[in-house]
Amino acid sequence: MIRVENLHKHFGGFRAVDNASLEIATGSITGLIGPNGAGKSTLFNVIAGVHKPTSGTVTMDGEDITGLAPHELFHKGLLRTFQIAHEFPSMTVRENLMMVPGDQSGESLWNTWFHRSRIAQEEAALLKKADEVLDFLTISHLKDEKAGNLSGGQKKLLELGRTMMVEAKIVFLDEVGAGVNRTLLNTIGDAIVRLNKERGYTFCVIEHDMDFIGRLCDPVIVMAEGKVLAEGSAETIMQNEAVIEAYLGRGLKNKVKAEIDSETARHESHGAQPGLGDEAGHGGAA
Question: What is the tens place of the pLDDT at every residue in 224-260?
């Protein structure tokens, strides 16, 4: 569905995205991971039209969408959420959902004067759809709550619900688990899987919680220093030496290796076999 080719995004001399190329397959839940500062959110911002790329191309279903504005991509079914939820805090949860669809008749002064019945019909349809979304996400009990009063996890669910108020094709979720307790994170994960399987949503997910990534995502793409470092299943990625080094850093990785080597040498000096515990040099366990 999405193809990114030789993408660059520079801020002055800083290369936030540096010649990145990747694909997001239709119907997939693709994970995007990497250490802080790897360029993940900047990549999302370029794909979603928040930033224009320095160079490179982004295509969606074969159509060049490079540099299109967010509202243009919205109408093509490409949506993006943020690390910090962007709700209308003084409006209710249900009202937040009803605000999402564009080109509503009530936005026209002419219609408010001469086509009130059309507006009423649209609002009734939006109300019904919003209630269906709230049921789907199991947060109907919050429909009349001010959105600003929600917890971090509930706001993330609301953002996910907003993507359901339009015909979304692909949704980019940026750190959906940030500040979310485990119970709500599981609820969000369940909703993502259901949207993927039952409604055909394609997702790309930035997340640091590897349990969450491992449960939902295949494939997983790793970024480091603005580049795509590796791609594969979550299990394969976590065994990749380059990925381990990118997360730990060379210095910490070498420190850990030195500690392991020192511990191995200590065992060997006591007559232990390399790689076994202290009891190996004492004739086995008691």
Answer: 999 999 999 999 998 888 888 887 665 445 555 555 5
Closest CA to 172 of 78, 97, 102, 85: 78
Instruction: Compute the distance between CA of residue 109 and CA of residue 260 in angstroms, rounded to an integer.
Output: 72
User: DSSP string covering 232-257, please?
Assistant: E-HHHHHT-HHHHHHHH-HHHHHHHH
Residue 146 DSSP code: B
Cα–Cα distance list, 250 to 154, 243, 244, 254, 255 (Å): 38, 11, 9, 6, 9
Three-class SS state of 172: strand
Q: What is the largest CA-CA distance in the chain?
A: 93
Q: What's the start-to-end Cα distance of the chain, in Å?
A: 60
| Whole-angstrom distance, CA of residue 262 vs CA of residue 45 | 45
Q: Which of 43, 34, 41 is nearest to 245 (CA)?
A: 34
Res. 82 pLDDT band, cuts 50 70 90: confident
Q: Tell me the one-letter amino acid at 226.
A: G
Handedness of CA 13, 21, 48, 194 (dihedral sign): negative
Per the structure block, which two tokens stand in for 74? 């919205």
